[in-house]
Amino acid sequence: MVLTAGFYPLILAPKPAGAAPTIASDQAQAAQLASQIDAQGNRMSLLAEQYDQANINASQVNSQLAQAQTALAQTQAHVNQLQGELRSQAVAAYVQDGSVSQIQALLQSNQSNVALKQHYLATAAGDEQSTIDSLHLARQALSDKKAALDGAKSAADKAVAAVSAAQQSAAGEAAQEEATLSQVKGNLATLVAQAQAQQAAQQAQRVQAALAAQAAQVAAAQAATRSSAATSAQGGGQSNASNSNAANPVGNLLRGVNKAVSNVGNALVGPSANAGAASGPLPPPSGGAATAIAWAQREIGTPYVFGGAAPGGFDCSGLMMFVWGKAGVSLPHSAAGQWDATTRVPMSQIQPGDLVFYYQPVDHVGMYVGGGQMIVADHTGTLVRYASIDRPGLDGAGRVN
Predict the structure, then answer these.
(1) How far apart are the first and last CA of the chain?
(2) DSSP characters for 21-72?
């Protein structure tokens, strides 16, 4: 079996010696790692499909081998039975037709009884000899077939082992990349926190400066008011309304200070934590699809397991096989096999419960549940989850018959 998925270690450009980390550089590194992990997931999805196909092939070979061994044993038993019957028949025929002297001559091994022995062999074999020959040929053919199946079984077992080893290597690389991404995200979070703290400190300084400036303006306005009041008292011609108007600039300044403080507080707090809240669960359809979707929803959060097809761990086609099995429908443990076992449906007419397939040749599958969402087991390191069907490699949809 030829493996079509390759694996390449992630090589990140080293930072210059002594260069301080920046948010931009760490963001770029995180994006590169995320892209690499996504590509690794696609390759592991292809390996999972190859693994499932290899297991199907090995199972078929084992079944054929068991059938051949049973047929070979039956043929051998038939040969042994006929040989025993022929020996008894030959002796009986000779005793009835021959004589004591002929028997004695036959038992003597010399050249004078060649014709007698030929007569005995013809009597012993008769028409049954052709049957014996046919059985021997059948036994030989079965032996040859068994040898060929032994070779096929060995090749199938090697194919399963090769794909499994490739998957383990890919899983190791994916784990390393995930660890690197986690470290980069940690560094990025630290840098962002530091930047936010610095911005908050600068903002606080600007607020304090603004408050000090406005307080100075308030003090100047109050001094001007007192001066104006004193002048009015001396002149005796100023009204209380004038004093009130003179005090208005102070009130305006104080309201401006309060508004500035409020704006700064809002900027520091940030947007509401309730923004972008997720919508409720999608309503399931009726019939067998509803049963399959309900079982798939029960498995949300189950880890992806290479070759898995039971609660506790699934690969993509194993999940579809399991949940549709609960609805009374048998599907093969293979994305390509499930493509062949379903009826094509235009994406404009897709309904909850339909299967959604990806890539050419097909090696990934999920189950549509409505609202542009599917339930899917993607690759090692992920959980069974809701995901958008709008992703690269979409090949089409299939309705379970």
Answers:
(1) 31
(2) P-HHHHHHHHHHHHHHHHHHHHHHHHHHHHHHHHHHHHHHHHHHHHHHHHHH
Q: Which residue bears the tokens 């493509």? A: 339
**pTM of the full structure:** 0.48
SS3 399: strand
Q: Which two tokens stand for residue 210?
A: 């603004």
The residue whose two tokens read 């019957």 is: 85
CA-to-CA distance for 188 and 71, rounded, in angstroms? 68
Rg (CA), the chain: 44
What is the distance between the alpha carbons of residues 144 and 68, in angstroms, rounded to a whole number?
10
Q: What is the DSSP letter of 398?
A: E
Residue range 235-281, pLDDT digits in tens: 655 444 444 444 455 455 555 545 554 444 444 434 333 333 334 44
Q: Please name the residue that has the structure tokens 């199907």.
A: 56
Q: Pairing state of beta strands 355-358 and 394-400? A: antiparallel
Q: For Cα atoms 42, 182, 380, give the angle at the middle one, nearest 5 degrees.
A: 30
